[in-house]
Predict the 3D structure of the following.
Amino acid sequence: MFTSMVFPLFLGAVAALYFLLPGKWRPALLLFASYAFCGWIDLRALWSLVMISAVTWLLGRKIEKLRVEDRGHNRRYRGKIYAATGIGIYILILCIYKYAPYYGENLSQRMGLSGDVLSDLIMPVGLSFYLFQAIGYLADVCGGKIKAEKSFLFFSCYLAFFPKLVSGPIENARDFLPQIKALGQVTLKDRGRLSTAAAYMLWGYFMKMVVADRLAVTVNGIFETPGEFDSFWLALGVILYTIQIYCDFAGYSYIAIGCARVFGIRLTENFKAPYLASGIMDFWRRWHISLSGWLRDYIYIPLGGNRKGFARKCANTMAVFLVCGMWHGAGLNFVVWGLLHGLYSVAETFGKRRGWKVRGGRFLTFVAVAFAWIFFRAESLGDAFFYVSRIFTAGIHPENWNQSRIDLRLTMVEAVLMVLGVGVVWLVDRFCSKKKLHLPVFIQEKQNAMRYLVFYLLLIAIFIFGMYGPGYHAEQFIYMQF
Amino acid sequence: MVRERVKKNMVRIGFALLLALTLYLVASVLRVKSQHGINQNEGLYWQPRDSIDVAMMGSSHIHCNVNTGLLWEKYGMAAYDYSGAEQPLWMTYYYLRELYRYQNPKVIVLDVYAPARFKEDYQYRWIAENIYGMRFSLNKLEMLSVSVEPQKIPQYFPSFAVYHSRYDELEKDDFESFFWDMEKKEAFKGYTPYWVQNPQQRSVVSENRSAGLTDKSEKYLRKIISYAREKECQLILIAAPYVLTAEDQKVYNQIGEIAAKEGVPFINYNEYYDEIGLNFTTDFNDASHLNYWGSCKFTSYLGEYLKSLSIIPDRRGQKGYESWDDNAEMIREAVEAQAGS
């Protein structure tokens, strides 16, 4: 949605209204804009969002009320039942939407249903993200960590906020709600805020449109017909996908953070140079941070975390990664992906306990993560196994490399652009990692000229080399021999 | 404090200008160039204001067959071939409006081959040639809304989104569209002749019925006629010579009737093969177009008619019309190059 041509216009319009209208109208404006954004993508998704928001808000208030009552009367806490019911229903909804389309066809046939009723159940946009936020909210209210939000307006802003609606970050209500209530204090000329917001967005668009989408063309070609490529290309495909998914997801997160910043809202950072991680635990502190944080707070810790012995810690870890895999997708390949990471974590914990020292941790982590991505990218578990086996059995055939390159429509110019793009991202990540700052914040400290130079370069790169538009194909018109 | 603020603003403005300049240069290079209509369209913007006296409009039957250099050298007519491949009349209407933003011609010659041959309400085969040369404007948006179905518009607009990825297929002529190439750009008047000789069968058509003009084409034909009337410009409808069919002739008959009612001349040059002196063995590139030699004969004959109207002034020797001398020179060089090869 961020990369559609309408989005910048939409953002500009909302931002203009935001700063023109009185401060106390801001939450309402953002909610309206978010519902418009959601409805424009899919009306069904809007209906779903409003329903979940209403139900969660009501449940939250009920649980809080019960908490106060039962505390006072020293009774069994009835709020837990409400919370558990709500959370249980949400998990059920998630499962239905995730698994129904996947198994829908088979089930429809077996049940004798005409048409594909079940496989038509497309997940409403953002559901996985706002349901997790709703679950976290109910758990927090139940546990007394946050007071239930009295205002439906503020609460629905929390779930619907359009920059994070589609792909997160998964925000915690404790961080987000206070910001929504303080919107009136945000001023237009806040110390470089807009400039930082612009930098986040431009960097995100660069990562997504120039690097990720470009890599995707080659990666798709290889994963579609892995049987036609030798080990070199298959391995290359894995590496390229590893970079692609990072640039795609991190890019999207940066754009979300930048958009939110326009309005004076700070979203949690979601990525911190993950491929510079020295181990798998470190990786998960750098990759999709908002999700791993959620899993830690609402699954790992409630299960006991590491407080119930080593064996239990390993079991809890595996459970968390099982959920993580399932959250990402319906197929068994996602489960395997999750479990692989679980195994990696357990192995690392075990190794650490024994005091084993590993050299080349960064490289190993990268390889381990890259390998696991095969299962994430493949269309099915079978495809993933086929891919893996072919890497080891296809052999290396340099004589076919040029043909493979042609089959993938990978021109020399595109290859160079790919390398340059990836190189820029890698250099920036390394540099900013050392400085412990993200690029947009880093350049904010610098002189104007330096900052504008970065904006200029990013803009030109996106305009020229971004993967957008239908493309112009002169061949279409050469065929006529007039 | 104020010095700081001024300095900051100067830096901002500086970078904004740098960005604009870069995008201008990049767009000039990456923009699509093609002699089937895009160059003709884009070439208009390089012409000196209010200098074109007669604009030739329509399909490729214009820019392949009407020799602007000959019209200049023989009659002193400042002519421009403002046409595009298979251009439907609804696009010609907006072309006409675009023309009048920069020029004030006394005569418009409109070839009506496209409405005679092509009957769909949305024609996509050569539409790109009629879109990418035009500058962004409300006029262009209106043209797009009428020529392209709504769901297909993202395939053609914005133009930059379409052509920005051409960076790996650039040719020499992609680097010749900057403002410092003005003289060379001015010298192009739309005429792009063919140099091959392909013998054709002389068409023998005797068709008296009149039918086949689509509603959409008729609507825009009438809009063109009234627009020309409003601009007090002499509109002349023609059908340039080619190998026509009976179906084409039916439409020409219908157009002839409309033209007569509206008081607009319509000349079907397919009735004058012999008077023009066309040789079906040597003068044709293909069934649809004359080649250079055929175009010279046809242009000469057309020029005589235009001269007889006594509307178009003889601009030879006049200041501000040097680009037409350059055009004639350019064509002469092309002829010599062809003779050499």
User: Anything to note?
Assistant: The longest helix of chain B spans residues 2-30. Chain B touches chain A at residues 8, 11-12, 15, 18-19, 22-23, 26, 30, 32, 34, 36, 60, 85, 126, 128-129, 154-156, 158, 160-169, 194, 285-286, 288-289 (CB under 8 Å). Residues 50-125+183-340 of chain B form a domain with the Rossmann fold fold (CATH 3.40.50.1110). The mean pLDDT of chain B is 95.
